[in-house]
Amino acid sequence: MITTKYPSNQVYPGIWSIGWLLVGVYILFSLKVASQWEKAVVLRLGNFHKLAGPGAFWLIPIVDNLANWIDHRSW
User: Fold this and answer.
1) Digit-coded pLDDT (tens) for 18-67
2) Which one of 2, 11, 64, 72 has the lowest number of neighbouring Cβ atoms within 10 Å?
3) Cα–Cα nearest to 71, from 46, 37, 43, 41
4) Contacts of 34 (CB under 8 A, 6+ apart)
């Protein structure tokens, strides 16, 4: 009989936990929400990519950057 240092029933829950933690951190840093009167200037690698919003939009962490929020409310 071959025994391993860690039984498989103890390794897989740890791997799943780390995997879901990484997915959660990615969503935390990727998902942004602009209000109805806002737009966001998105730069990709330092170059203009798009105006995002209003509503939810995704960014690619490290690659995308929010340069500025534009407020369209009239005074």
Assistant:
1) 999 999 999 999 999 999 999 999 999 999 999 998 999 999 988 999 99
2) 2
3) 37
4) 40, 52, 53, 54, 55, 57, 69
What is this structure's pTM? 0.70
> Using an 8 Å Cβ cutoff, are 69 and 40 in contact?
yes
Q: Is 52 exposed, middle or buried (0-12, 13-18, 19+ CB in 10 A)?
A: buried
Token pair listed for 13: 């829950």
Largest Cα separation within the chain, whole Å, is: 78
Take residue 63 and report the two structure tokens written for it.
Answer: 């690659």
